Amino acid sequence: MTDPRYSKLAKLLVEYSTELKKGERVLLDMSDVPDEFSIELMRAVRAVGATPLIEVRHTRIAREILKGTDKKHAALVRDVELFRMKRVQAYIAVRGSANASEASDVDSDRMALYARVLRPVLNHRVNKTRWVVLRWPTPSMAQGANMSTEAFENLYFDVCTMDYRKMARAMAPLEKRMKKANRVQLKSPGTDLTFNIKGIGAQMCKGDRNIPDGEVFSCPVKDSVNGYITFNTPTLYSGTKFENVRLELKDGKIVKATSNNTKRLNEILDTDAGARYIGEFSLGFNPYIMNPMCDILFDEKIAGSLHFTPGQAYETCDNGNRSAVHWDMVLIQRPEWGGGEVWFDRELIRKDGMFVPKDLKGLNPENLK
Known about the structure:
Structural class: alpha+beta
Distance between the termini: 30 Å
Radius of gyration: 20 Å
Helix content: 25-40%
Number of strands: 20
Number of helices: 11
Largest sheet: 8 strands, antiparallel
Mean pLDDT: 95
């Protein structure tokens, strides 16, 4: 018998996250996902009168594609994928993987080339469709979270099917404050960073783009970032795990970057000119996600966290920066992680992971569960 949680999650993705309507078309991009869930998702799409177009992928095959790619091949893939993306109104991606490091031995130059050439597909999907992206729970993810497979699956379905409408109401005041803010200052051990977000705007993420969700993001004015930031959570990018990432920025540009793998870190930041500028700043507050698991769709929503993103800016909150890279790096500011502060225009917004102003206290964990 199919797990009843599959049907609940599929219905959330179709009816809430993408709000599919009769007559619309949606691309279902499934990577290493059980057939049973893919079927439930197709049925949920058809139940609202929409048409599913499904793509089934596998991460080991994706690795082989990347290992042998070149400009001619990548351009062909781009043209095919972009044609298909332009034919749909919505996009749902569910991504599983038995091995999160599957692409770790792919040549970095090939990875960068493929990302650059296919960027128009991602840009169209992000800016022209209603989309939602989520992971699929696997033993590999459970291991990354230091949990048993069963316990992680239970956590996964709890967090992915939580009351996102309630969360949306609670985050509206934070979105309003970020839209009005000018100067932002971040303070933590190894971190003292200032930048401006005036005129950039803000966007709350309430389960209609990512599942799980729980963040409000903006973006620094491109040349306004000065200082240094040290990330206290591991980060996985293109199959390589990085720890103790520290960035120094001057007039918006990353002028020094170090980590446990400084060479590979700088190779990625040298993908193109935009990779050394910042494309996103966000505060995370999902009450069910407390610790990192090296999966950014979860880690960037950790309660009491923020993320700061070298690379591409979203058109929603745009500072004009363009890059093939968009790398969310996470800093947790709860006391057990060293604490920290977030200031907007000299007002303390969050201290040690807890929101301070009265209108934002609804985002603290005890009020969201």
